[in-house]
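Consider this:
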Amino acid sequence: MVMLRRYTLKIIFMAALLAGFVFSSTIQAQTSLAQEHFERAVGYHLSGNNEAAIKAFRESLLYNKKDATTHFYMSLVYDVMHMGVNAIKHMLKAEKYFEAEGRDYWKDRSRQRVEDYYHLYKYEKEDFEK
C-alpha cells in the first residue's frame, strides 16, 4: 500500500512537471511568434506598406494581445493612414498596458499622443474614455 502511494505521488509529481514544461514552452512559442509578426510589421511600415503592417500587427496581437509596444506602433501606423478612431483606440490600449507594466515614461507618451489625436481628429475625450 505504501509503495502504491509513493508510485502514485511520483506519477502526479512527474505529470505536474511535464504540464509546467509544456505551459512554459507554449508561452515562449507565443512570445516568439508575436515578436516575429511585430518585426515583420515594422518592416512593412518602413517600406511604406501600411496595410500589410496593420495585418502583421494584428497577427502579433493574436499571440500577445496585451503587448503595449505593439498597440503603440499600430496606433502610429493608423495615424499615418489617417484612421483616427483606430489610432486612438490602440493608443489608449498602449497607455493602459504601459501603466500596468509600470513603464511610466511610455504611459505618459501614450497619453500625450491620445490628447494630440483628439485635437487632430476633432474628437472629444468622452467619445472614447469613460
DSSP finds five helices and no strands in the chain. Residues 29 and 63 are 9 Å apart (CA to CA). The chain has a mean pLDDT of 86. The helical segments are 2-46, 50-63, 68-80, 84-101, 104-121.
